[in-house]
């Protein structure tokens, strides 16, 4: 029996490779709007981040999200990310 392929992605905060399903995707759509992509299927440039506060803090502090998405990240997107992280930790 063949093993099922598990797609791996790298977190921009801690730089560890983890299964795609364990990470949260942030996407910049073709119009330039930055949003969370909880389905993982939206079109645009996407980056992945672990569902941990420390990874988010590292990514924001080191400007990894902005560098990877090649645009500024608004406070509303960061607030959404923190809210989602808090909900997933419960």
Please, could you describe this protein's structure?
The structure is a single chain. The chain is α+β, with helices and mostly antiparallel strands and 90 residues long. It is built from three helices and five strands, in the order βββββααα. The strands form two sheets. The protein has a three-stranded antiparallel β-sheet. The protein has a two-stranded antiparallel ribbon with strand order 1-2. Strand 3 and strand 4 form a beta hairpin. The model has no long low-confidence stretch (mean pLDDT 91).
SS-based class = alpha+beta
Low-confidence runs of at least 5 consecutive residues:
none
Instruction: Give a count of the beta strands, DSSP E runs of length 2 or more.
Output: 5
Q: Note the gap between the termini.
A: 36 Å
Oligomer type: single chain
Strand content range: 15-25%
Strand order of the largest sheet: 4-3-5
Radius of gyration: 13 Å
What global shape is seen?
Answer: globular
Tally the helices: 3
Sketch the topology as an H/E string, one letter per element: EEEEEHHH
> Main β-sheet: number of strands, strand sense, barrel status?
3 strands, antiparallel
Q: Compute the average pLDDT.
A: 91
List the helices and strands and how they pair.
Layout: E1 8-10, E2 17-19, E3 23-28, E4 34-37, E5 45-50, H1 53-61, H2 64-69, H3 75-89
Antiparallel strand pairs: 1-2, 3-4, 3-5
Task: Give me a quick take on this structure.
The chain is α+β, with helices and mostly antiparallel strands and 90 residues long. Helices cover 33% and strands 24% of the residues.
């Amino acid at each position: 029996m063949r093993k099922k392929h598990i797609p791996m992605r790298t977190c921009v905060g801690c730089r560890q490779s983890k299964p795609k399903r364990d990470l949260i995707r942030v996407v910049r759509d073709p119009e330039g709007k930055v949003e969370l992509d909880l389905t993982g299927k939206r079109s645009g440039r996407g980056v992945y981040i672990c569902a941990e506060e420390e990874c988010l803090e590292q990514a924001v502090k080191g400007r990894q999200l902005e560098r990877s998405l090649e645009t500024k990240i608004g406070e509303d997107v960061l607030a959404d990310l923190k809210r989602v992280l808090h909900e997933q930790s419960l």
